[in-house]
User: Fold these one by one.
Assistant:
Number 1:
Amino acid sequence: SAKKLGRNTFQFYQPEMNDEAQERLRIESALRNALERNEFVLHYQPQVDLESGAIVGMEALLRWQHPELGMVPPARFIGLAEETGLIVPIGAWVLRTACLQARALQDAGFSGLRMAVNLSARQFAQPELVSTIAAVLEETGLPPAALELELTESLFMHDVAQGVHLLHELKSLGVALSIDDFGTGYSSLSYLRNFPIDVLKIDRSFVNDIATDADDAAIVVSVIALAHNLGLRVIAEGVESEEQLEFLRRHGCNEIQGYYFSRPVEAGAFQQMLQDGKQLVCGGPRRLRA
Ligand code: C2E
Ligand code: MG
Ligand code: MG
Ligand code: MG
């Protein structure tokens, strides 16, 4: 028994851990083959401008449709893809597919839309990142300004100077840069001053209770003011209700993304939304112009 092994020894065998380890192994080996087997798909979630109500962009979100495991959400495999380095080829596929899709939408007459793509820490640490992105832009013919790269605060934890250098290189391609999940990571306000970023995305966890929690409301209002004072655009993530939407509109948030307007959808459904001219419907006349 564990007791016999002494006070400071942990018992190793735990059935749940074993299951978890096996599940991990299973996912890892399946992940290795997922690209060649064409099991990945991107869904697109609209980003809507709060002044015009129009769709102005979209975020590409990775989905893994495994024949036996079913639909595996990113939360269950992105971490593993990071650890194994598989995120590098997967991330390159995401970039290329998203840029092709953005280009196809432009060719269909929907120009001026931005395509946001998530970058992982591992990709960010790749020396080839900038040339990969340049090659994808060249190959797809997508104007660089139509591509927005979403980065998280954790990417800069290790080497801030190197991170800043890389951001400048990325900016010189002409793409836009945003900070995703803003406020949840290692947050230092000094980087907002030094980093050539264009957009802050307020994390869903702050948006969730803005209508009822005074602290969260205060944080969101402050982040919007901070972004605007620094000349950045601000997007609120995870907007699910009219109350949240109205709060954000009242406080001058530029754009929203969330289930209230639309869940992430397949490419065809996204294009259909554009064709239908789907817009954000506002609850009554706009306050400031009444
Ligand atoms: P994220 O980049 O912050 O993406 C937003 C997540 O919030 C998405 O989850 C989206 O479906 C979800 N979401 C959007 N609106 C709402 C809402 O109103 N309510 C709620 N409850 N959720 C909402 P998803 O697609 O499961 O992705 C989770 C995370 O996985 C992403 O968070 C991102 O960090 C990562 N991820 C997704 N695709 C990629 C990718 O291509 N590459 C990398 N490196 N990471 C990715
Ligand atoms: Mg994101
Ligand atoms: Mg986010
Ligand atoms: Mg709170």
Number 2:
Amino acid sequence: MATTRAPLPRFPRDFLWGVSTSAHQIEGAADQRGPSVWDAFTALAGTVKDGTTAAVACDHVHRYRDDVALIRDLGVGAYRFSVSWPRVLPHGTGAVSERGLDFYDRLVDELCAAGVRPVPTLFHWDTPLAVEEAGGWLSRDTAHRFAEYAAVVAARIGDRVPKWITLNEPAEHTLLGHALGQHAPGRQLLFDALPVAHHQLLGHGLAVSALRAGGADDIGVANSHGPTWPASDDAADREAADLYDVLLNRMFSDPLIVGRYPEVIAEILGAEVPDLDGDLKVISAPIDWYGINFYQPTKVGAPRAEPTPTEFSGLTLPSGLPFSPRPIDGYPTTSFGWPVVPDALTELLLALRDRYADRLPPLLITENGCSYDGLDDQERISYLDGHLRALHRALEAGVDVRGYFVWSLLDNFEWAAGYAQRFGLVHVDYATQRRTPKASYGWLRRELLAQHAPGAGDPGPARG
Ligand code: GBH
């Protein structure tokens, strides 16, 4: 049953509305590209909850026209997708796949014809297997291979791409893929995973200069962020929460925005990276905006004497970590078990503005969304409605946020959770590939029409 809800407050006229997806999660057509670390990872038993792979996923490569029509009819102005590196360069470097590039060429044309701005992300975790076998992101060379790949993509579609994203969530890719081993490539290096973070940042910086050389003038990066709440006021809990905050929030934004690592990270990397200061100059090359993927806050306390691995929100955490995540009680949860705390988005945006002040680039929310089952997804409507109001409060407080992208257009391959977690505004029946817009799709469509209706409501907060 639909509930009556007040319309959203008015956002600025030029606010960019969009939806997000990523290549490995929707494309399928795995036989038409080179293998990635995710193909290798999901082939192993026990890595994905329901034992599935993304070989077919949403079959988007064959159905992109239908998917673009869904985006157009939704009424958003932009579509954030990712380019699969192994679809463009099956061996990661060297020979280019014309077939792969053609696909993105056609997708971009289709979007332009539909009046939707294409916003490609160059890396959303699907490292070519050949690059992994040569050392992957533990190797500095990968940063250079990534920049070369960026140049190949830009040469083909750059004439029609108004806005670029280099990396998606280097923090999650480092933590889940290389420190804890819950995602591909499945390494469990704990703090020895730090070079992976550095090489992604270096790859970002090198890619920015490759894109600029090709004429791009609107480039950002998408990072996951969320407030970290200490479990209590005790010094040990606060210290553990600070460390977690460094790893999730500051390890990437500090070097990108102010050109230096938080002290604990600089100490470790300084001993390993020959010219850290030189690299930081590359990493902090100016970007045009900074993207935030927001899902939920995290509560963290001092490590407990846990002799064995512990389960937390679907993650198996090894023993011996210097912090321990704690449940956040008192809020509704998504079907993933993540707490729904819209105010935490306002808190996060204000905290970023306070921390970086004048150096903070304009922001975009590049992902926000939730997993729930069913077509009549009232919980998703209330999640999105709550977070958009929270975002609007940050705008009113003068934080410069230029757009908002829902994760995700379609239900898709949710990494280690397989197909069981559904994040889409559009339902996908994987047996038939039938797409069915959910209640949330209709809600967002109506809200966007109201946003764009001439003269209705106030014009939104002035840009501060
Ligand atoms: C994003 O990452 C990805 O970019 C995208 O590919 C993915 O499909 C989407 O989000 C949904 O997962 O255990 O309560 O502390 C998500 C980043 C990191 C957000 C882990 C939730 C754990 C919540 N996520 N975090 S909790």
Number 3:
Amino acid sequence: AKAKGRNCFEFFNDKIQQAAERTAQVHLHLKNAISNNEFELFYQPIVNPFTGQIIKAEVLLRWLHDGQFISPEEFIPIAEESGLIVQIGEWVRTQAVVCAIELQQRQLPLPLSINVSTIEFWSNELQQRFLNYFDSIQQQFDLTVFPYELLTLEITESLMMKQQSNINLLLEELRRRGLNISVDDFGTGYSSLSYLVNFPVDQIKIDKSFIKKIAQGERHKAIIEAIVSMSRALDLSVIAEGVETQAELDFIKEQQIDAVQGYYFYKPMPKNDFLTLLAEQQNK
Ligand code: C2E
Ligand code: CA
Ligand code: CA
Ligand code: CA
């Protein structure tokens, strides 16, 4: 009887209420996720599309809460709104550095790519904290050299939009230390291509939404072609993300794109599987 009497307005009201409750719940548990050891890093290999060889890997955060994986698509925005993303980002970078060093020690040095939220660059204080944190990892692990050259930071276009010269200074300082900067989800933001000219970056990642459209025909392929030729002109390397099919891979190869990430080759995997895979590749 209740369902019958409900009008649209009540229905949507309920939905909004449920969503708000879910957000509040996630936020509550997210606060304790680090101390409860609920986070884990997965690694997704990035390969040479011609040889299949693993050339680097993206680090992807996983949250196992009460026996269930909660998607980063859900919890990262909540972490960003609440500011928890700063501590979470630091946790991710510590673990990634630990892994990079471990790989080095096993004679499997491989660059790791880390996602960074734009929130972490939002103020001068946060920028300073971001830089200092690398020094604190170095101290914590008593490292004589810090593996900056094995790390890439993936940022999004919205950072480029922030017309703030000190973000350029920060990125330049990070590159001076040896880190690479990659523009993630390229083409999905509102940035104009001209931002790229003035922005200190090394690499772009073509968003998977463009890769998905390869099958839809020439007009969609033309977009990827344009991104690739522009990247060449600006001397940026290119990664194609979300490659799932043979047809997508064939087109990527035609475009001479030198790095590919996607389910066609590998899904993100736990660290142990990743280490095993690398060891196997090395023994081939
Ligand atoms: P992203 O940075 O664009 O990461 C790539 C996403 O695409 C990952 O989703 C990955 O699992 C997925 N993916 C890779 N290959 C394929 C494919 O062939 N097909 C399809 N359909 N998907 C593919 P994931 O791991 O769920 O992460 C989602 C987003 O959450 C990431 O998107 C990133 O924006 C954010 N994220 C993940 N880890 C972190 C982190 O440590 N810090 C921050 N700030 N954000 C993170
Ligand atoms: Ca990414
Ligand atoms: Ca991406
Ligand atoms: Ca994304």
Number 4:
Amino acid sequence: AAKKAGRNTFRFYTQDMNQRSAEFLLLENHLRLGLQKQEFVLHYQPQIDIRTRAVIGMEALVRWQHPELGLVPPNRFIPAAEETGLIVPLGAWAMQEACRQNKAWQDAGLLFAPVAVNVSARQFSEDLEQVTAAALQGADLAAQWLELEVTESTLMEDVNEAIVMLGTLKRMGVKLAVDDFGTGYSSLSYLKRFPIDKLKVDRSFVIDILDDPDDAAIAGAVISLAKNLRLKVIAEGVETSAQLDFLSGLGCDEMQGYLVAKPLPAEQVADFLARWSAKQL
Ligand code: C2E
Ligand code: MG
Ligand code: MG
Ligand code: MG
């Protein structure tokens, strides 16, 4: 079919690709500049113990505070950052900043819970242990207060490498969570060889959990799997109390989602914690 379409198609395709790579270069340059100019910020989403309602963690989620575009969500620039390798310095910055912020919350007596930082595949196969050690040391934060979120697909890219890296991080005392669990295709037998602490039930299974029996079955299976492997399990993207009740009924330990709070700028976290603890009374 390609042959039959002839040269016109080829020319058209090339032009399209050139245009794409020009856009890509532009984004890459902007990202690089944004990093230099320190335009990235972290927002923090509370993670809650479903039974006690205690805040048991804060997930750090990066945003780009662009001078013209405003607050740009990560889905708009993380893929380009990954493809260009800029995720490595960006990710290192996010880890340092999250550790520094968590230390500041502890020093203020506000919060004693791990901060969870997302780590992408590219960082995972580079010197992640050095970057992690430097972030902890730079913030004077003990390793138990840092959790790293790695997606299921990252772990499956190179299983043996993943087992070694997770083992190293685990021995440092860092906590480990598998993000977006259920969306990749992991062989379940590998799960027991990964020294992880927690599974995160992907938001895509939570959205329709009340109406779609398949989603409910998958969420239930992930929760049972976690229990049987003695792992913690957290549901992400919980928006309604009906979803929360359902997940709680399935035995889910922890949750995060708009029901409790959207990701918050660091300076709003104190306020949130005060309101949240008042709500419990
Ligand atoms: P993720 O790690 O799975 O994070 C969960 C995403 O779901 C976040 O989107 C969060 O704001 C959103 N979310 C949480 N609760 C709810 C809810 O109740 N309803 C809805 N509709 N959404 C909810 P966000 O902040 O846009 O981040 C998207 C993704 O970008 C993250 O998915 C993560 O994969 C990536 N990301 C964010 N920060 C970083 C980072 O520092 N490094 C890397 N490598 N990736 C990051
Ligand atoms: Mg995450
Ligand atoms: Mg996730
Ligand atoms: Mg997700």
